[in-house]
Write a structure and sequence with these properties.
The protein is of the alpha/beta class. 45% of the residues lie in helices and 13% in strands. The protein has 20 helices and 16 strands.
Length: 562
């Protein structure tokens, strides 16, 4: 009897301890996320001020202690990697845990502010179309807003799906020794360099320029340990700025890791800093569009978007438009299962039907031009000038369709370095974010890829604002965003937070939840690659239907929806 009582007491003590641990974790995570909710308010107000956006909405930033547990559970679910499952699990757990740590660079708040602004503008577009003046009520879950910038790791699917193998093969190729997101190398002058070659063609060019004799196809995650030594030895032969020039000159991509002050002292940094966060220019006096009422449907219903984007940042913009009901047609070469960067692109497919076009085939190029004439919006994120020789420059697209809204993302400015390629991790490294987030000796990239997603969200805000302007005043518009300009904006809003610069807001922080936020992922069944789990959208506009059904997508289309 004595042993029974002792065992009962021990078990009870363990249960009490577990409950206390759970309560402590809930309190700590809630406290951290409430601080990030205040940062969300700051970011939201700064976005509206910097972009000159005037709105009248009820804004609520939601915080709830259950989110941490929901996200941890999602880390263990639907891990579709046939090998290296533990690697993906580690990346997921690391990303979620970092969401609940203090951020030197505001990214959760920045994402929440941007998504809230996008939702607010979408709701106003719906009001204009329906001829009503109802004040929009926009609710953003702060933790799930943070999840949006790490969503690359969080998507789920069965390893039995046909898509699982191509996506895993893509991951093997991407995570090589020249992946600057993870690996920085010291040069002959002691400064650090990061390569950013996420296409096989770029990787092959840089390997050749560095004199690395390994076959590019064999230079991947499986050979990583030895490859890192080879790369480190090759890079030691160069000064950092010479290597940066070599990388761009050979057709690849890489940069010197700079401090923020060093970045602002360069001519290309100064050109970026001189740009507005989003540049919107009215380029024609076309009449107001009449899309008709959207009724109780999503506010962008019937608005046609031709999507000429790739990888993450550009598709993040058009995905937001799709989630609010736009008819987004994604132009791609080849089938979904044949995409070279399936690892990086899966997230950007949500909500978009796709059409396969090869612009080298005259008939297919003409079909693209026909679609441009039908579209209301074109989004573009390839390297500047990449499609000019096909007659698809920005100016040519406006000639094809004088009523178009043209939204584009670049890495740098639209003057100095405008033709250079770039990626989100490079934008972190070159602007000083990586050093600020870590140190001079141990630079550290941000959590997930916020300089893909946040610039994409910012461009979506610009496009939505242009749609609103057209409905009210008419006109065609160019909307231009930049990865590095958004990086500079993150420096600015983080500086404001560090200095506790006062700001005014009418938004509210509330401890609350909504039915959509009960799980960290949502199921999207109607897709060309089979059932998928996507991270739960962070923003809900009260009165609008759920955006989850709008995340479905199919392939092999011949045009927009009828």
């Amino acid at each position: 009897m004595t042993w029974y009582l002792i065992l009962l007491i021990v078990i009870s003590a363990i249960l009490v301890a577990l409950v206390l641990i759970d309560i402590t974790i809930s309190l700590l995570t809630y406290h951290v996320m409430r601080q990030k909710a205040q940062q969300s308010e700051r970011a939201y107000e700064k976005i509206k001020k910097d972009l000159g956006i005037v709105t009248d909405s009820e804004i609520e930033f939601l915080v709830h202690p259950d989110r941490f547990g929901e996200m941890l559970s999602a880390c263990f679910a639907h891990n579709g990697f046939p090998r290296y499952r533990i690697v993906l699990l580690f990346l997921r757990l690391k990303a979620v845990i970092r969401l609940y740590k203090k951020e030197k660079i505001l990214q959760t708040g920045a994402a929440a502010g941007a998504l809230t602004t996008a939702g607010e503008l979408a709701a106003e577009i719906g009001n204009i179309r329906n001829g009503v003046t109802t004040k929009p009520v926009v609710k953003t879950d702060v933790a799930f807003a943070g999840l949006q910038v790490v969503r690359l790791y969080m998507m789920g699917y069965s390893k039995k799906q046909a898509f699982a193998a191509p996506r895993f093969d893509s991951a093997l190729r991407v995570d090589n020794a020249l992946n600057g997101s993870f690996y920085k190398y010291q040069c002959a002058d002691g400064r650090y360099f990061s390569a950013h070659v996420y296409y096989e063609s770029q990787k092959a060019k840089l390997m050749k320029a560095l004199g690395i004799e390994t076959k590019p196809a064999e230079f991947n995650l499986d050979s990583l340990k030895g490859d890192k030594k080879v790369v480190a030895a090759a890079i030691k032969n160069y000064k950092a700025e010479d290597l940066e020039k070599l990388a761009f000159d050979c057709g690849a991509c890489g940069c010197v890791l700079r401090t923020h002050e060093e970045w602002k002292a360069t001519d290309f940094g100064q050109a970026v800093c001189a740009m507005p966060l989003i540049r919107t220019a009215k380029v024609g006096d076309s009449p107001k569009k009449n899309y008709g009422p959207c009724g109780s449907d999503l506010p962008l219903k019937g608005i046609k978007v031709l999507d000429l984007t790739h990888i993450i940042a550009g598709p993040a913009c058009s995905r937001i438009l799709a989630e609010y009901g736009a008819d987004v047609l994604l132009v791609r070469r080849g089938k979904f299962l044949e995409q070279e960067q399936a690892m990086l692109e899966l997230d950007g497919w949500a909500g978009k039907n796709s059409i396969q076009l090869d612009f080298n085939v005259p008939e297919q190029l003409e079909l693209c031009k026909k679609l441009i004439k039908e579209a209301d919006v074109v989004t573009y994120s390839y390297q500047n000038g990449a499609l000019d020789h096909f007659g698809l420059s920005r100016e040519a697209i406006h000639e094809l369709n004088p009523n178009i809204i043209y939204g584009s993302l670049m890495c740098f400015s639209d003057s100095v370095w405008k033709d250079k390629p770039g990626w989100a991790p490079l934008a972190e490294d070159v602007t000083g974010l990586s050093i600020r987030n870590g140190s001079l000796k141990k630079p550290k990239n941000l959590n997930g890829v916020p300089l893909d997603y946040i610039p994409g969200f910012m461009l979506a805000i610009g496009v939505l604002n242009a749609i609103k302007s057209n409905l009210l005043h008419g006109g065609a518009y160019n909307v231009t965003g930049s990865l590095t300009r958004t990086a500079e904006w993150l420096h600015e809003v983080s500086d404001d937070e560090e200095k506790k610069v006062p700001f005014q807001t009418k938004s509210r922080i509330i401890r609350a939840s909504l039915p959509l936020f009960e799980e960290a992922t949502v199921a999207v069944k109607d897709t060309v690659v089979g059932p998928l789990l996507y991270p739960t959208p962070a923003t809900v506009v009260i009165g609008l239907p759920s955006s989850v059904p709008a995340m479905a997508f199919q392939d092999g289309r011949t045009g927009f929806k009828k």
